[in-house]
Amino acid sequence: MKLLFVHLLNNCTGSPKVLAILLNELCKNNSLEISLLTSKTDGALSGIPNVKYHNNFYCWHENKIFRVLQFCLSQLRNFFYTFFADFDVLYMNTVLPFGAAIAAKIRRKQIIYHVHEVYINPGFLKKFYSWVMNKCASKVICVSKYVKDNVDFKDSVVVYNPVEKTEVPRDIALYLKRKFERKLIFMPTSLKKYKGVFQFVELARLIPDFDFLLLCSSEHSEMQKFFSETNLPKNLTLIGKQKSLEKFYREATISINLSLYDKCIETFGLTVLESFDALVPAIAPNYGGPKEIIQDGINGFLVDSYNLIQICECIQKIMFDFETYKNFALNARKRAEDFCKEKFLSGIETILESLGNKID
Length: 360
What we know:
Oligomer: single chain
Mean pLDDT: 94
CATH architecture of the largest domain: 3-Layer(aba) Sandwich
Number of strands: 13
CATH topology of the largest domain: Rossmann fold
C-alpha cells in the first residue's frame, strides 16, 4: 500500500510529534511505501528513515499578509502534488492542508483525517475546513472524546494520542525527592495569550519561593519581544523552542497548562501526558481533553485558569509533604501507561487495514 501523509508545518508541537511516532513505526513495514508532504523546516517530522519527503512550500511569517500568501501557496502545492502523486490512501494530519484532500477526493482516493483541533479562528475558516472534511473524508480519527463530540462526522473514532515511555529511574524515591526539593513549576506551551502565558507570569509573582520555567515553541528572541513590555519576576525563566522536552520534564516538580477556556479549549493535552510519564503531577483546565487524562486530586488537579488563587492552593496540596507529592507522582506515571504507543498504533493500523481492504 502506498500512503501519502500531509502535514502543514513541521515543528515541535503536539500534532507533528504524534505523526512522527506513527511514521517511525510504519516505516518498519516493508509492504508500505510512505511519502510525506510537509514544510522544509526542522521539527519532529525531520529525518524519519524510509520516508520520501516532499516540500509543501509553507513557512510561518510574522507578517499576516505574507503568512496568508504563504498559506495559499502551500495549498496550491498540496492540491497539485496530491493530484498527480502515486498513492492509495491520503492521511491528513490536522484539517489545515485541505488542498490535498480536495485533490484526493477528485481522484476518488481513500482519505483519513486525523483531527487534533476544533478551535480554529476566524470562524469562517473552521466552517470551511469542516465542510471540506465532510465532503472528502473516508474516515475521521479524533484525538479525544471531546473532539469526537465536536466533529460533525458519522464515521469517526477516538484514538488517543500516545506517550513514548521513558525509563523509570532506579531509585524512584531519590528521583522524586530531588524533584520535590527543586520546587520548579514548568509550563511548555505556544507563545499565545490564549495559552495563559500571562497568567503563568502572574502565578510566578504569587509564589516567589518557587522557580517557574516557561518553554514556548518559538525562538527565544520572539519570547523576549513578546514580553518586552512586561516586568517579569526574577523567579521566572524563559526558554525557546526545543526538539526534546524530556530533560525539562525530568527537572520539573509540577507541570501546568493554563489555556483560557473562553478562548481555546485543549482538545487533548499532550504536555500533561508527557509530564505524567516523567512522574510529574499536572494542573490543567477543567475543560476538553485534560479532563480525560487527569484524575482530579489523584495525579493532578483540574482548575479554572483564571483563578490563580485556586491554582496556588492546588500547588500547595501537591506539595503538602513529600509523601503526598510522591503519591501524586506515582499515580501520574500509572495513568500515563493507559496511553501507551501500542494502543495508539493498533488503533491506526486497524483503520489502515480496513481502507486497504476497500482498495483491494
